[in-house]
Amino acid sequence: MISLTSPVRTRAHDWPAGAKIAGLCVASVVLFAAPSVAVQTMAACGVLVLYALPGRAFFVHGLLRLWPLWPFVAVLILWHLAIAAPREGAVIVLRMLSAVGLANLVTMTTTLAAMMDVVNRLLRPFARLGVNLRAIELAAAMVIRFTPVLAQKGGALALSWRARSRRLAGWRVIVPFLVLALDDAEHVAEALRARGGFEGDGQR
Amino acid sequence: MNTERNVAQIALFTALIAALGLIPQLTLAFGVPITAQSLGVMLCGTVLGARRGCYAALLFVGLVALGLPLLAGGRGGLGLFTAPTAGFLIGFPAAALVTGLMTERLGSMSIGWAAGIAAALGGILVLYIFGIGGLALVLGRSVPEAALLVTAFIPGDIIKAVLAGLITAALYRARPHAVMSRG
Question: In order of start, what are the domains of chain B with their CATH numbers?
């Protein structure tokens, strides 16, 4: 599966993932606590500079990922023009764009493996409380493996529906899709069990 | 004892939520221009039950946060958690939990009705409480103003709750043991 990490290699790719996430948390809190237009404008410009540093491809790709926010930007602008509070509107729009932009930046410069490491470290204290880390890891890996498989099988179901009917496959096709997923789960569970499963995990 | 089966079912349902967002042919009936992804969350609760359903939704949200493009349209990453719609995503596990709990509690009702009502309570009421909260926070609006923004999506979600009931009932006929909310 394609992850959302940017193929354009940046210096931030080498920074520790934990530090980037902690920084993002701090930055988000600060952004939401700062009510002044000047601060928000500076922050937004700062984010733009960060996107521009790794080069044109990274910049364009990064900004395109902010595009889904346009309906919110439009609603906020219209709203604040209507109630004649443009400054407040500017603060909210800039804050939203910077917060999402920064968070995307962390995702774009951090590999899935590095993220997994952070999660593992965060969850480790809970292992003593009975949280099965190996099960979580395995489940995550299985989702990555099975999402394209299920998408393909679901697509095939929809296609075979169309071969038999002139109408589009609607919700009805979800029933065989669910049956298929549950049967797959049964096979996977058997396969896991056959390979030793989670037995003895309690001792480790 | 059944850890393997639980893990496999949770993982497969997480993959199912993702797959429902990836298959373009699976746009819902009546020309509803929305994905089946939140339907997937409802089904987690009605089929897997409260506990496993919640875990599946939690795994889904976690993997999205890690940067996997599992949301409809291939979206993912931490940006979604600071976006205006973050509440809807963060609310997925709670929605699946409440849907599962309600399906289990309404055990005396026929499975279709129980699942439909549970899906409406968990997948609409609970999910919208989270979603509207997030919108109000990020957009700096009051809660009623934020609620106004999403009213257009409620009819589509009611259709999805009805479908969750119909699908769960059909699944109960096909694989009675698979509907674990009716253990």
Answer: 3-182 (1.10.1760.20)
